[in-house]
Amino acid sequence: MTRSAQRAIQPGSESAVSPGRFDLLLIVMVSAYLLSAFTTGRWTGALRVALFTVVALLAIRNSLLPRRTAGLIVTAVLAGSAVMIVLSFTTATGRGVANIWAGLVLLFAVVAIMYRVLSLTTVSMQSIYAALSAYLIIGVAFASFFAAIDYLNGGHFFAQNQPGSTQTFQYFSFTTLTTLGYGDFTAAGNFGRALATLEAAIAQIFLVTLVAFLVARFRNPGDHERSGSHTS
Predict the structure, then answer these.
(1) How many CA within 13 A on the CB side of residue 193?
(2) Tens digits of per-residue pLDDT, 116-134?
(3) Sign (positive or negative) of CA dihedral 206, 210, 214, 217
(4) What is the torsional sign of CA 90, 96, 101, 105?
(5) N or C: which end of the chain has fewer CB within 10 A?
(6) How far apart are CA 53 and CA 59, in angstroms?
(7) Distance CA 210, CA 142 (A)
């Protein structure tokens, strides 16, 4: 039996469990981040919901879910996102609900990505792309939740009555995610503070578990060839 054939049937090899394609998902996620950071307007909210829906669909496509289950989830995500895109053009309450939906869809994508990556025994560059995507998704998801609080609360999310925007919520989310804590923006209410604390805790758990897992198991293609030649 040839070496390539042995590697193809070896349990736990990359051929036995494909790592999926997460490079496109990372590109879409970076695009959504830049859109939120540099554009304003009501159409931006609708476009963000659309991009987040694409992120969720790509995560489902790369998941290990049974085809029927994945199909039902895709249908629900598409139907819900269509409604939320319409709501993003309505009242502050509608925009708040749309932001909650966007955050939940993104967190579902994170769970699907982590489950997919942790199922692998060998890590590839696609797994690294997946981890980077998941980290960005967490930051943008919590930015959506912070915006939802601002829209639904009837007051300002930030202390000292500082006005919120897509840019400031995303800025606050990522400074919280990375535990930088610049202090120029702080949550005014207890619920916002609790949510920010939860985000910081999730970030630490993410780094300790998933990133450490990837670093420990990462092997470049040259390593696979050398290990194959030693075991054959």
Answers:
(1) 6
(2) 888 877 778 888 899 999 9
(3) positive
(4) positive
(5) N
(6) 10
(7) 19
How many angstroms separate the CA atoms of 204 and 128, rounded? 18
Return the domain boundaries, the chain.
20-224
The fold adopted by the segment(s) 20-224 is Helix Hairpins (1.10.287)
Question: Vertex 26, ends 24 and 30: CA angle to 5°?
Answer: 120
Helices (H) and strands (E) in the chain, counts: 10, 0
Judge whether 212 and 127 are in contact, CB under 8 Å: no
Q: Work out the widest C-alpha separation in the chain, in whole angstroms.
A: 71
Paired tokens of 68? 């029927």
* Closest among 187, 88, 87 to 142, alpha carbons compared: 187
> Angle, nearest 10°, between helix axes 42-61 and 166-177?
40
* Contact of 16 with 10, CB cutoff 8 Å: yes
pLDDT digits (tens, 9 = 90+) for 2-21: 343 333 333 334 334 555 78
Token couple for 82: 């269509």
> Residues with Cβ < 8 Å from 144, sequence gap 6 or more?
52, 99, 100, 102, 103, 106, 169
Q: Which residue has the higher pLDDT, 67 or 17?
A: 67
The amino acid present at 149, given as its one-letter code, is: I
Q: Tell me the one-letter amino acid at 24.
A: L
Taking Cα atoms as reference points, which of 13, 12, 9 lies closest to residue 225? 13
Average pLDDT, the chain: 84
Amino acid at 96: G
Confirm if 223 and 230 have CB atoms less than 8 A apart.
no
Is pTM beyond 0.85 here?
Answer: no
